[in-house]
Amino acid sequence: MTDLPANDMGDNMKTTIDIADNLLSRAKAAAHRDQTTLRSLVEEGLHTVLVQRSKAVPARIRPVIVKGRGLTREFQNASWDQLRDEFYRGHGA
């Protein structure tokens, strides 16, 4: 049996889920081999996934900051399309 928090082991609800035939067959075979129930195997799997996901740290996006004086007069009122075209001029785009 897994070390699940007490609140995960108490109240039980019945539900129906669709599982791919191959995965269900493999899970039943693993439960039989390990002398446990399919229910215990599913609960352990869900618990493991939920713990892993709760520990996942979202990637931080660090802003790129450069020192400068902004756009030159030539580009101060330029559209994004004009800026993009200038950035890529001479680079085959």
Can you describe what's shown?
- The chain is mostly helical and 93 residues long.
- The protein has a domain at 6-55.
- The protein has helices spanning 6-9, 21-33, 38-55, 80-88.
- Helix 2 (21-33) crosses helix 3 (38-55).
Number of helices: 4
How many strand units?
Answer: 0
- Poorly predicted parts: none
Task: Estimate the global geometry from the Cα principal axes.
Answer: elongated
The helix/strand order is: HHHH
Gyration radius, rounded: 28 Å
Structural class: mainly alpha
Helix content bin: 40-55%
Strand content: under 5%
Question: How many angstroms does the end-to-end distance come to?
Answer: 61 Å
Q: What is the overall pLDDT average?
A: 86
Largest sheet data:
none
Give a short synopsis of this structure.
With 93 residues, the protein is mainly alpha-helical. It has helices at 6-9, 21-33, 38-55, 80-88.
